[in-house]
Amino acid sequence: MTSSKPREQIWREWRQLVNMSADEIDAWLDTKQSRSVGIMEGDDTNGRKSARRIVEIERTGKDELSDEQWDHMARVVGYIKRHCAQTGPDHDVETSDWRYSLMNWGHDPLKDGGCA
């Protein structure tokens, strides 16, 4: 998959929407909450697999990103935008599957700049 968006647009949206650091995502992946949501793909969920790729991207310099990483960044941006457009839970957002799923994709809706 090659994104039709220019890389600079992907970069801007990525910086805006992926609001968890690589270290925060690593720590999140160690929780039972992270493992409790998502669609299974083999031995893990698609969101958790994506999270590991996000960590790798976050630890790679912009000029060193591969075409595959740019494509994944575009996929992550699209997922976060679609998921944020859904109506989240009316209460208990902090412990909701909706939030946990977003966090598996590098976005914590409770942080500044959440799903606003």
Main sheet attributes: strand count, strand direction, barrel closure: 2 strands, antiparallel
Distance N to C terminus:
28 Å
Shape: globular
Task: Classify the helix fraction into a percent range.
Answer: 40-55%
Largest sheet, spatial ordering of strands? 1-2
Strand-and-helix sequence, N→C? HHHEEHHH
- Mean pLDDT, to the nearest integer, reads 92
**Which spans of ≥5 residues are poorly predicted at pLDDT below 50?**
none
- Please give the radius of gyration in angstroms: 14 Å
Explain the layout of strands and helices.
Layout: H1 7-17, H2 22-29, H3 32-35, E1 40-41, E2 44-45, H4 46-58, H5 67-85, H6 97-104
Antiparallel strand pairs: 1-2
Describe this structure in words.
The protein has 116 residues and is mainly α. The chain has one domain (18-104). 54% of the residues lie in helices and 3% in strands. It has six helices and two strands, in the order αααββααα. The longest helix has 19 residues, at 67-85. The N and C termini lie far apart (28 Å). The mean pLDDT is 92.
